[in-house]
Write a structure and sequence with these properties.
Layout lengths: L2 E4 L9 H16 L3 E6 L9 H14 L8 E2 L4 H13 L3 E4 L3 H13 L9 H4 L9 E4 L6 E6 L3 E6 L7 E3 L7 H11 L4 E5 L6 H10 L6 E5 L2 E2 L15 H6 L4 H9 L13 H7 L10 E2 L2 H14 L2 H14 L10 H8 L6 H7 L12 H7 L2 H16 L5 H14 L4 H13 L7 H8 L1 H23 L3
Parallel strand pairs: 1-2, 2-3, 9-10, 11-12
Antiparallel strand pairs: 4-5, 5-8, 6-7
Bound molecules: glutamic acid.
Length: 472
């Protein structure tokens, strides 16, 4: 059975580059009816706070990339790591190294001076008998030969063993090191495919030696190319939202983010839009590109709008509720979320834009856009609004068609152009000229509210006009 894993180190945020790694691992497992595991690499106890771990769990839950088993925490496995280290020592595959910091620093300086690659010289590998005191545990890396592996993305890779150090497995404070824990964990959780960022490619030969020493078969390794910003520099805060939480707060949907991420370094013909089901069916490591991929926020916005327009009400509702609440828009009366979606989704690229643009339904108008007023409102238009208010009050069927007919008849009768009436109505009802089709906006706002807002706005707008007209 295929078993993949996502193994983040808690840093306080979940970078979207890491999410792409998680997504590819998730998709590969699901495609092959396998298992996707989550391992929290929390050995750096200072950074790995409970909150930092929670950020990862929340981010993955929001994205729907949930693991098939409860997460594994490396800090819960120290005893096991110790057992494995003891076994390697017993077999003579690892050794205690008592070299002092000073000795290692001098060694390094000399090697650099002689233009050699700095590496441990194997001093304690051959002479430690009878020594005691602080020490690390090192792995006996083969001194000759080479490691070769077939990376599922990068192709064959060969590294001469002479290039590799005698890897530290355990530090002098007896904490185990990253490369060691990863191998023990991957072996013991049955990981068959190690899919991770290519910043780890230099670790792989070291890890392969450990697999051999522990007598275990190698998994398939797949190293994913880096994600860059549109300026071809490593994707960072400078480019925009880079953590899952920031993307969520900016009003993106998980479906859009996953779709944007799946296209980073993986292609399936010219296809751009992928639901999670489609990604799962179509994803394959063979389609992963070797070159770095650029993340485009414009593309993400475009995808987000697509999902806003196409996802069902049931899927969108919790996301919209979240943002309405975050923005402090309380919706005790006014249109329901279901009514808002067809009207506002095509006009919004993010959930935040969506919520802000329909905010006017739920709050009285506190401010009227003076620029719009100067452009669209005159004494005469206010007289029209006054007359129209009476006509609207008489409408017995308050729905978009009837409202449209009422407005249309009015403009025809008074030889106006439609916007000459529609824009002042918008200003009176919403404060600005940003609103969807006027008949639908009115229908959704409800007759009582429309009439009350018109009646309230007319004298205020008149006063504003008068003020404007007064000479200084
Ligand atoms: N913990 C490592 C990281 O966050 C990943 C290790 C791995 O995937 O092997 O970069």
């Amino acid at each position: 059975m295929v078993v993949t894993r996502f193994a983040p180190s808690p840093t306080g945020y979940l970078h979207i580059g890491s999410v792409r790694t998680a997504l590819f691992s998730y998709l590969y497992a699901k495609k092959h009816q396998g298992k996707f595991l989550l391992r929290i690499e929390d050995t750096d106890r200072e950074r790995s706070t409970e909150e930092a771990v929670q950020v990862i769990l929340d981010g993955l839950a929001w994205l729907g990339l949930e693991a098939d088993e409860p997460p594994i925490y490396q800090t819960h496995r120290f005893e096991r790591y110790q057992q494995v280290i003891d076994g390697l020592l017993e077999k003579g595959l690892a050794y205690r190294c008592y070299c002092s910091k000073e000795r290692l620093e001098t060694l390094r300086a000399t090697q650099l001076e002689n233009k050699q690659k700095p590496r441990y010289d194997g001093h304690c590998r051959y002479q430690t008998a009878g020594q005691t005191g602080p020490h690390v545990i090192r792995f006996k890396t083969p001194e000759t030969g080479a490691v070769t592996f077939q990376d599922a993305v990068k192709g064959p890779i060969t590294i001469a063993n002479a290039e590799l150090d005698d890897l530290v497995l355990q530090r002098s404070d007896s904490t185990p090191t990253y490369n060691f824990c990863v191998v023990v964990d991957d072996i013991e959780t049955g990981v068959t495919h190690v899919i991770r960022g290519d910043d780890h490619i230099n670790n792989t030969p070291k890890q392969i030696h450990l697999y051999h020493a522990l007598g275990k078969p190698l998994p398939i390794f797949a190293h994913l190319p880096m994600i860059l910003g549109e300026d071809a520099k490593k994707l960072s805060k400078r480019h925009g939202a880079v953590s899952v939480l920031e993307c969520r707060e900016a009003g993106f949907l998980p479906q859009a983010l996953l779709n944007a991420l799946v296209r980073l370094g993986w292609a399936c013909g010219d296809k751009e839009l992928f639901s999670v089901e489609e990604m799962t069916q179509l994803f394959d490591l063979a389609g992963v590109n070797q070159a770095s991929a650029c993340f485009s926020y414009d593309k993400l916005r475009w995808l987000n709008q697509h999902y806003l327009k196409t996802l069902s009400y049931e899927v969108l509702k919790p996301h919209l509720d979240y943002h309405f609440e975050k923005l402090g828009i309380s919706r005790l009366s006014g249109p329901s979320t279901e009514q808002l979606i067809p009207l506002f989704a095509p006009r919004s690229q993010t959930l935040v834009e969506f919520c802000k643009s329909c905010q006017f339904f739920y709050q009285p108008v506190l401010q009227y856009d003076t620029e719009a007023l100067a452009k669209h409102v005159t004494e005469e238009t206010l007289a029209h609004l006054q007359r129209l208010t009476s006509l609207l009050a008489e409408l017995s069927h308050w729905e978009a068609h009837a409202i449209h007919d009422c407005l249309k008849n009015y403009v025809t009768e008074h030889q106006l152009k439609f916007p000459q009436l529609a824009q002042p109505i918008r200003i009176a009802l919403t404060g600005s000229i940003q609103s969807p089709a006027i008949d639908q906006t009115l229908a959704m706002m409800g007759q009582t509210e429309v009439l009350s807002r018109l009646r309230q706005a007319i004298p205020i707008l008149k006063e504003m006009l008068d003020r404007e007209a007064k000479p200084l």
